[in-house]
User: Fold these one by one.
Assistant:
Number 1:
Amino acid sequence: MPRALQDRRERVLLVGLARSSSETSSAESSLDELEALADTAGADTVERVLQVRGTPDPATYIGKGKAKEVVELARMLEADAIIFDDELSPAQGRNLEDVAAVNPLAPNALKILDRTGLILDVFSQHAHSAEGKLQVELAQIDYMVPRLRGWGEVLSRIGGATGGGGGRAPIGTRGPGETQLEVDRRRIQRRLKSLKKDLADLERTRKVKRRGRDRSGVAQISLVGYTNAGKSTLLNALTGAGVLVEDRLFSTLDPVTRKLSLPDGSEAVLTDTVGFVRKLPHQLVQAFRSTLEETVEADLLLHVVDSSADDPQAQVAAVESVLTEIGADRITRVIALNKADRISEEERDRIEKMFPEGVFVSAINKEGSSELLDVIRARLDAARRIAVFEIPFDRGDVRSALHDGSEILQETFGEDRMRVVVKATGPVVARFKEFLSTEPELMENDAG
Ligand SMILES: Nc1nc2c(ncn2[C@@H]2O[C@H](COP(=O)(O)OP(=O)(O)OP(=O)(O)O)[C@@H](O)[C@H]2O)c(=O)[nH]1
Ligand SMILES: [Mg+2]
């Protein structure tokens, strides 16, 4: 493709569906988000179409007549692609391509894309670490395989080298790479197998690193929140880390962990990770499972909310639903109402009512951060319970780990072991459960 053409931002038409006329406003905010995703992927939205329809049409999502209309409109506006605000089934995608008379081999064909494909595209642009790239490729293959239209009909994105934000490939085609030749299912299988193996290797390395951290016994806090809520900015503000911050969706894909000093002098570690979004593709949740495990194993979740967003409650709901999906919904959390510098007094009152437990902060000018740290410390404290450990003398490492991260109430030394009474969080207790005393009532007498 000539250079000039490649550098041109693409033009896209967005199509959303509302179940009923009372749901149009939430469908509109979903389209806003799709527009932001498209912008992040390098495309300008030239028009949005919202269709009210009780249930999606199984064949064409919006109905054949409407589909023809949308295609006409797209051609008139010289759009490069139509993006549907949902995951299209493989059959819907094929039928819509037929309506658009898409020839995937012809240049400048009108492309049919969906929300999942777009999110995968953004992820593939933003994946930097080896693990992140592999995770995205795995999710892309998962998404693509049922959508292949027979041998060689569709371009393969597998096994090449143009992915990962390198060039200016057109939106929807950025991926692990492209080859002109036909796709062979065996090759896909081989690639899948090697991807999974490489990922497993990387996961092992990361687990070893994490085990080192677990042994320290200090509280682990995970930042969670909607994409672009300001998680990385808050990490930087609280810990002085130099993490990349951008006004783009999904700028962070790889987890970053930094030390955090709490007001009582104790230490915790704070991990920044991938943000969430409405209808986060399950292929990605699966592929990022190991990254998200850090979140599941945290002592506390710091949920960052963009208080200046149009609908913070909807964003919180989207985050909560992903947390439930990965099994992190029972972890204690603190809500940071970020970007407080951008809202008026009235908005502040309104948001305070929505989230009475939330703490207003501005990560950008550090306003509210000391109050936030106080709340974090108090919440960690409340999550602590008294536990009694019996630690052999040769396990000084366990004792010092407990000293680092927990409050020591009493220490007594026996013949071959020491008894340590501590106030520690559930996860810390679980980490050292092999040393838990089997005679807690005895200890209580001792302590009293
Ligand atoms: N006005 C204002 N802007 C903020 C604040 N915190 C973050 N931002 C801006 O919001 C944008 C997103 O910030 P990030 O820290 O990258 O957000 P994130 O949650 O890490 O986003 P992803 O990693 O993409 O999911 C950037 O342009 C920040 O400068 C704040 O307190 N006030
Ligand atoms: Mg970030």
Number 2:
Amino acid sequence: MDTGDQKPKISETKDGSTTLYSPLFDQHYHNPNGAVAESKIVFFETPGLLKELQSRNHLAIFEMGFGTGLNFILLKHYLEELQNPPTVDFYSVEAYPVDPDTAAQFDFGEELNRHKPGEILKSIFTEVNPGANSFSISESLTLNLFIGTFEEYPKPDQPIHFFFQDPFSPDVNAELWTPEVFQSLKSYADSSATLSTYCAASSARAAMAVAGWKIARAPGALGKREMTLASLNEKNLGSYKRVNEHRLIERYQKGDFD
Ligand SMILES: C[S@@+](CC[C@H](N)C(=O)[O-])C[C@H]1O[C@@H](n2cnc3c(N)ncnc32)[C@H](O)[C@@H]1O
């Protein structure tokens, strides 16, 4: 996990918020058209998490790739806007944690900067050790951050309601888009669970379908045509247009995505 001079570098996105560029994966951590705006749409609005935060007493969320911690800070922000927030256990895994001094420089825009994300993330990245780490962030929010690869990740200790599938894209981070990975996520899931991702690649959808997820396409964020939603129960996919899982499974078995 030594990234040497492959250390991620800060870059600004079009909504003014910062993201990182990873020389190791040759990819930005977020959409260059707006890091915060994309996270809101892909992980909070489209899968219905924003609504569920208002009505549930408790939620468990799993994120693949903690990265800059932006999704986590956004969650903290939404919880603090509620009068009676649910308790949320946020589980995340990160193989290449950002160095604390880089984290201190994050700018997530005016709305989120009120929460001093640089300070919070700097202290998280200073304190983490390899393996499991737990931080009680507020009365309603706990962060369970595993430092290591997903391959080493132990199953969360409670069923997950929302999955943020947020690795780099399948062409550079293929090991996190396999049927085996989606099978593991399925084994973590509550029966009501929804998985969302910015990715609309057929190969990624096929891997989900082979693992038994039901899939829908939704309008993509900020100039992207589509994103993907998945659930074990098709009722959770609402009115979003369904993808033909049988066809994708056939294509996967024929080797179309090898
Ligand atoms: C697109 S970034 C995640 C962005 C993040 N969710 C955020 O809010 O900033 C993908 C992350 O996945 C991590 N990653 C890549 N391969 C991994 C693996 N096998 N296990 C765990 N983390 C991995 C990368 O280091 C990177 O931080």
